[in-house]
Amino acid sequence: MSFGSLTFLAPLALLGLLSLPLIWWLLRITPPKPLQQIFPPLRILQEVTVEEETPDSTPLWLLIFRLIMVALIAFALAQPIMTRPEGTDNNRDITLLIDDGWDAAANWTTIMREAEILIKDAQRKGVQVNIITTTDRDVDDILTANASDALRHIKTLQPWPQNAALKNKAEILEKMSETSANGTANIRASDVYWLSSGVTNDNAGVEALETQLDTFAAYKVMSPGAANLPLIPGTLEETVDGFRMEWHRADGNGIRSTDVTAHDNNGRVIARSNILFSPGQTTAEAKIELPTELRSKIQILRVDDTVSAGAVKLLDDSWGRPLIGVLTESKDNPSPLLSEPFYAETALRPYADVFRGSLEELLPLAPSILVMPDAARDTSPAVNEFVENGGLLIRFAGPKLAARSDEYLPVRLRSGGRALGGALTWEEPQNFSAFAPESPFFGLSIPEDIEVKQQVMAEPGAETDSRTWARLQDGSPVVTAKEQGFGRIVLFHVTADPEWSNIPVSGLYVDMLRRLLSMAKSSSTKASTGQSTSDWAPERVLNGMGRLKSPDIYDKPVAYDQIDTTTDFAVNRPGLYRQGPRRKALNINADPATYSSLATLDGIETEQYGQTANNNLGGLLLWIGLLMLALDALLAIYASGRFRILKDRLMFWRKQGVAILVAGLLMSMSSGIEAKAQDETHYNDALELHFAYVETDDPRVDITSENAMLGLVDILTRRTTIEPAGVRGVDPATDPLVFYPFLYWPIDRDAPALTDEAVAALNDYMSSGGTIVFDTRDSGDDFLSAGDPHPGLKRVTESLDIPSLAEVPEDHVLNKSYYLIELYPGRWANGRVWVDKNQSGAARDGVSSVIIGSNDWAAAWALENETYYIDLERDIPKQREMALRFGVNMAMYTLAGNYKADQVHAKALIERRGDAQREPEDLGPDEETEE
């Protein structure tokens, strides 16, 4: 409902104005005249002057005041707005052309706010709204509706991880007739608002669209400012110490600074780097230094201030920890520790996944690197195909190569080896000379005790010089390399074992091979080498906001030979795709060089968002009405003749004010502690079952813990008779703990030591029957600890009364309190779990006071949703289900004690386990039999 520039979004609330006559009538009612009865003793009071009199009806001025107050509240509930968009002072229909591709996601809230304001203005005028989105999805090209339906429709819109199809939209507008089929008004007579993302890589599409927009009554292009345009990832290159990545923006105006973060597959931040765009610059570089172990865990690169699928770089098997195949001459080597493959395998295993075998066995695994010792030389065409398709071949020399060379070499070799006592002899073994700056080994420290006693010699020449990565002190090449196809061949001119040199037993050997790992690319070996040709199935896909989520039924597989070229993101959304053990990243891969700002294109005039004013009067009117309601109480006191009494009471409070203020302060100080102890939350926790987790200083960890406890509440409610009421986050130093059967406590390596208050509270909690579940969440990183105790757990528990602990025995009640289980998985499944060594514990009904593990149980218990759902490592089948069963067992164990340890259950438990060799002892007849 509209009146000029005033619009009521909830006009039915104006029906409240119909109550004004009723209020008038009720307030104007005069009480019946009292019956007069002469009482002679009261005649002496007849001459007494009355200073204040109470009227027999509501005064007119108070009545009008109350009617105005009710009317204002009615108007406020009708949600009045005063909308004055610039250039819309007409009654033409409006058409909204909304960018909903990945490039609009960064400013999606602003775009939707602008659309809502424009539609509400159309609602005020009573005109139609046409909505067109710029992506090619399976939806109606144009939606024509009234303003109310249009408001509901735009709330369903979301940005999609695909490019805008501007040229297609221009063709759709061009095909529209002058009038619709049913004779309604022509859409070309409407005002068009292009709510754009601000950037484009389709100048031809923009030109075609602008040609069509010129045929409308009027049009306006809205765009975000230069500081809010999306950032686009560019080239990514690995360096000696980490990697560097370029980021681009479409408009170089102003300064822009943000952070680039590297995340692992669980969303945890591994590294962070700042990028700075100076005025006039459209490119900035992020540099991150990381060891290989951490670099291989990176799966996602994103910028902090841009939420968009196109501003995310996903990494796959071609990044990080490579798969390496080491060729062996035979499987039945009598001395495997003395064989050539042993040294290369030992040096590479900490930094890569290494497999040994023949060429026929290794190629189906699609390795990125093949290591070929001289004893296992293979010159079949499959080796050439492996290198041509992007593989890295690392070869070592030896007697076979010295006697006869082959075609898979970076340089031409002389026949025979160079050694002491030969035609070309050395007076003494040679060491390496310093690595040249262009060598990938540049910067490595060369030990003084390196000795090369024999080598295969390269033919001298310009080609050999350009392909040499390492030389001996006399200048002869000892490591050469060349590119071949999409791959590379690297030759060490010594053996892979210590026969010709002591390089394989030195630290330099490990460092040189680690430098080569960064050059490994994912092999794209085709079906001829045994690789699967099945389609790539979606594993995790990106939504328009750049967040990974589980695929739905509309996400289709990608043909195995089209994964690198597909651009139809309407069918195959960007994300991670899997083909058996292999994983491939499908990125939008927007070319930054093709993107430009709409504001910089010739013939396009843009206006920034936020120019449309929308004045909501509802809040102001409601505030005035409530203020009048408070004032009405004072006016009612005055009209009733009791103002003098109020005045006398105010004087009394004035005299007693100081005393009351002091007393109030003292009471508030004493009642603060009492109020906290008797908080309503804690009363509820005493009446109903709640699960609790210990709050940390990391909000992300606390959110995961809370979601995990909610997951336990949900699974227990659905599967058992236990129905917990909710979840609490507690601080052991301040919150009462006695209401909770157990405390889930995630421990970080930098967790601080406990305060004295927390130590006393936790010791009391454990002594009174509570259980603390410590979870260090680092089972997947055990190789980093080298057997050292967890530093955070050590600091937290050093002051607690922790009993003697032991690993959970096979017959422990925790294995059978509800489900029969043998493992205690979370995100990982192989971490050890510790409980009280003494299982009898009569004072605690056999329940351990602590449970300590490292499997990150919260990650597996958490409810499945887009924000907190975390993929598991899947070390065992149905890992999440088994983790939930362990959570149910743990809750039952802490709540019900050791009743499942009674011998009366032994027979049934053994039958369930199917243990035919173990028989329960004779327990006599059951109680039901005796009855």
Q: Roughly how much helix do the residues carry, as a percent range? A: 25-40%
**Strands ordered across the widest β-sheet:** 18-17-19-20-25-24-23
Largest sheet: 7 strands, mixed
As an assembly, this protein is: single chain
Low-confidence stretches: 179-184, 420-424, 522-531, 670-678, 915-931
Global morphology: flat
Please, what is the average pLDDT?
Answer: 79
| Count of DSSP H/I helices | 25
Strand content: 15-25%
Question: What is the SS-derived class?
Answer: alpha/beta
* Counted beta strands: 39
What's the end-to-end separation, in Å? 79 Å
Please give the radius of gyration in angstroms.
39 Å
Summed up:
The chain is an alpha/beta fold. Helix content is 28%, strand content 20%. The chain starts with a strand and ends with a helix.
What do these coordinates show?
The chain is of the alpha/beta class and 931 residues long. It has 25 helices and 39 strands. The C terminus is likely disordered.
Give the arrangement of secondary structure elements.
Layout: E1 2-3, E2 6-8, H1 20-27, H2 60-77, E3 80-83, E4 94-98, H3 108-125, E5 129-133, E6 143-145, H4 147-154, H5 166-175, E7 191-195, E8 199-200, H6 203-213, E9 218-223, E10 232-238, E11 242-248, E12 256-263, E13 269-277, E14 283-289, H7 292-295, E15 300-303, E16 312-314, E17 323-327, H8 340-348, E18 353-357, H9 359-362, E19 369-372, H10 381-388, E20 392-396, H11 399-403, E21 413-419, E22 454-458, H12 462-466, E23 468-471, E24 477-484, E25 487-492, H13 507-517, E26 537-542, E27 548-549, E28 575-579, E29 582-586, E30 596-597, E31 606-608, E32 614-616, H14 618-639, H15 643-655, H16 657-677, H17 680-687, E33 690-694, H18 699-719, E34 726-730, E35 742-746, H19 756-767, E36 771-775, H20 782-785, H21 791-797, E37 805-807, E38 834-836, E39 850-853, H22 857-861, H23 879-896, H24 906-913, H25 927-930
Parallel strand pairs: 4-5, 4-7, 7-9, 9-31, 17-18, 17-19, 19-20, 20-25, 33-34, 33-35, 35-36, 36-39
Antiparallel strand pairs: 1-2, 2-3, 3-32, 5-6, 8-30, 10-11, 11-14, 12-13, 12-15, 15-16, 21-22, 23-24, 24-25, 26-27, 26-28, 28-29, 37-38
Helix pairs in contact: 1-2, 2-14, 3-4, 5-6
